[in-house]
Amino acid sequence: MDVGAYYLIQILNGVQYGFLLFLVASGLTLVFGIMGIVNLAHGAFYMIGAYLAFWLDAVTGNFFLALALGVPISVLLGLVVERIGFTHLYRRDHLYQVLFTFGLILVLGEVRSILWGNDVHGVDVPPLLSGSITLTDTQVYPVYRLFVSLACVVMAVALGGVIRYTRLGMMIRASASNREMVQVLGLDVNRLFMVVFGLGVGLAAFAGMIASPVNSLHPSMGDEILIVSFVVVVIGGVGSIVGAFWAAMLIGLADTFGAVFLPEAAGVVVYALMAMVLVWRPRGLFAG
Question: What is the pLDDT of residue 177?
């Protein structure tokens, strides 16, 4: 076995997982950093995105069309949830937000159960991306996994561009720094919150969609990604998109290599890493 190629594959897998974590965690840190909402249902939107991709792919027969339809549907769902539920909770205690999002997890779980059942599902890799690239004479790497990484890079660059160079991004940065001042200046904070929440849901759902041909779809997939995403947010620093990116890369590689070298303790590696970072930087690596 080519050891160099083997480690390269693990690095690629870790980076790909890190990119997926970044998409989910960036939405989570945006919602919490801007809106002050502890959204425990964020992982459920990741799950809904994956199941939407499964359903739309089956209906249309085209995975890319499923992505094109699934993202706006997910964003619309996020906008509706924000207007119906979260808009009434901004001035409430965090306990009310936690209770609402916990109830939302149950509702979305029941919707998923009614529409798609509780069986494990899978999405076929689109034929266009079903091949592999040759690393060595004995090692290959799936093209689709490279596509996942590339798609996440495009989304990350687009998100960074929106936040840094657009008026919406200026409002997001200002709200993160001083929400009261933004309100005094006459900006519509409620509309901003709605857009931010829809964007966060869209990012989580998109991550679930592109991950669906790689990972199996099952009822607890949202809970699993939520826990790790919170770890990413804590390590990177609450409200920091840059922190979420680097923390996601760190967690993705640590989780992948932990599973390779310490399979018995693979589940502990990520949390041990979080503990070490918090001892050194209690507010996270990139806290403001």
Answer: 66
Measured distance CA(74)–CA(117) in Å, rounded: 20
User: What is the rounded average pLDDT of the residues 205-225?
Assistant: 93
The domains located in the chain, with CATH, are 3-280 (1.10.3470)
* High-pLDDT (> 70) share of the chain, %: 96
Alpha helices of 35-178 — where are they, by DSSP H? 42-60, 63-84, 94-116, 143-165, 167-177
142 phi/psi in degrees, rounded to 5? -65, 135
List of residues 6+ apart from 65 with CB closer than 8 A: 56
Which DSSP category does 286 fall into? T
Check residue 129 and give left, alpha or beta (phi > 0: left; psi -120 to 50: alpha). Answer: alpha
The answer for residues whose C-beta is within 8 angstroms of residue 73's C-beta and 6 or more apart is 52
For the whole model, what pTM was predicted? 0.91
Q: Which residue has the higher pLDDT, 90 or 207?
A: 207
The mean pLDDT value of the chain amounts to 87
Asked if 244 contacts 38 with a C-beta cutoff of 8 angstroms, the reply is no
For residues 125 and 16, give the distance between their C-alpha atoms in angstroms, rounded to a whole number: 16
What pLDDT, on the 0 to 100 scale, is given for residue 109? 93
* CA dist 197 → 35, 99, 214 (Å): 8, 18, 26
pLDDT at 89: 82
**Hey, which residues does 141 pair with through a beta bridge?**
133
Q: State how far the alpha carbon of 255 is from the alpha carbons of 107, 241, 252, 266, in Å.
A: 31, 21, 5, 7
Sign of the four-CA dihedral 243, 198, 216, 149: negative
pLDDT at residue 176 is higher than 70? no
Q: Using CA atoms, how far apart are residues 92 and 173, in angstroms rounded to an integer? A: 23
Token pair recorded at residue 16: 């790909």
Tokens of 55: 């359903």
